[in-house]
Write the structure tokens for this entry.
Amino acid sequence: MAAAYPVVRALTESDISAALDLITAQWPDIPRVCQERMIRQDPWADQQRAFGVFLDNRLVAHARFHHRPVRIGRASLNMIGVCEVVTHPDYRRRGLGHRVLRAAIDWMQSAGQHFAVLYTDVPDFYAGVRWGCLAEDFYYVPAGSVPKLGPGRFPITHIPIAEAPDSLARIFEESCGRHPISLLRTPAYWRSWPRWAAGNLWFGLLDDLWTAACEDNRIVAYGGIQRSLRRDGSLAIVEACCLPGREDALLDLHDALIARCRQAGGDPIELNLPSDHLFVSKLAPLAERTLNRNAMVRVVDLPGLLHALQSEIEQRSAHVSGPARVRLESPVGSAAISAKRGEVSINDSPDASRADFTPAGLGSLLLGYRSAADLSVAGDIEAAPATFELLDILFPHLHSHYWQMDHF
């Protein structure tokens, strides 16, 4: 009898029960209701997809892909987060998981997505289908040695996420929204997010409470505590934001968040914040810096991504007397940029100076890097030194840590 041929397709409503069976068997510590909430209450549920492999009409491999729009400067990019990648134990090492990922990449390209990201403990599995590692800095401080930082004049309150006022959206926009890389959050997102995150053991707040600092009976800073996804026994301080000019309130917020972490038994405390955040700079002398290599990136549409970034590249190339041309080559796509005095075109010119990137190097270039020379030292780019200088002019040097608590 001939062996069954695997069928790969997008899942439908009728497949959700089988998908939840497979997911819950892989991660039994996460209640099934939480898994189902992630599917049904996602803020952009209409743009998410799940793909699966079927053998003899049985779902044996699965992955879910969900939309998370990102802003880099003035540019809006389409990002896909990837989660719940799992193959039934009886069907592993047959390439079925890779089939799911390839099918999803085809869908992403047709849907106008620019790049995809995920966290994983098995990066080599994804490297086999041209994903690259996007290294991030994380900081951990011992719970017992963190000093008080605040002036102590801002009253602290706790707000259930389901009752969060509109002022939190404003604070996020004026704080995180000003960071070079941030998630886009629409009013509809803020309305739907609490239903999705409430009680969610992977993505939600520790006890579904925001901590907020107030001034004159209005919230001027807020933040939350989440379980660390990287280190057992740790709690993470996330999304600590304040209105511009209210950094002293942010320091009182820091003290309240640290106290809550200690009370909940988290040690060490993870600062799940950008490296230029006030908390990180204040606590750096006490912190253990860890380079996390569990984040993976896959550029889906390089020309489309560069077109989306064109306004940013134009701004940076305003002083390039040019013409300057560079061609980005990688296993996941290629494109050329021509720039002169703020005039930029994205094309397929073969005459430009060539820079060869690994998937990781290309992701780092587009989502945050220190210098092209650093990428060369890491083995992620091969190009002439003059091309390094051009890349450093055209692409902003961003910190790649834009993840928020609901990143993917």
About this structure: Confidence is low (pLDDT under 50) at residues 402-408. The radius of gyration is 22 Å. The domain at 7-113 is CATH 3.40.630.30 (Aminopeptidase).
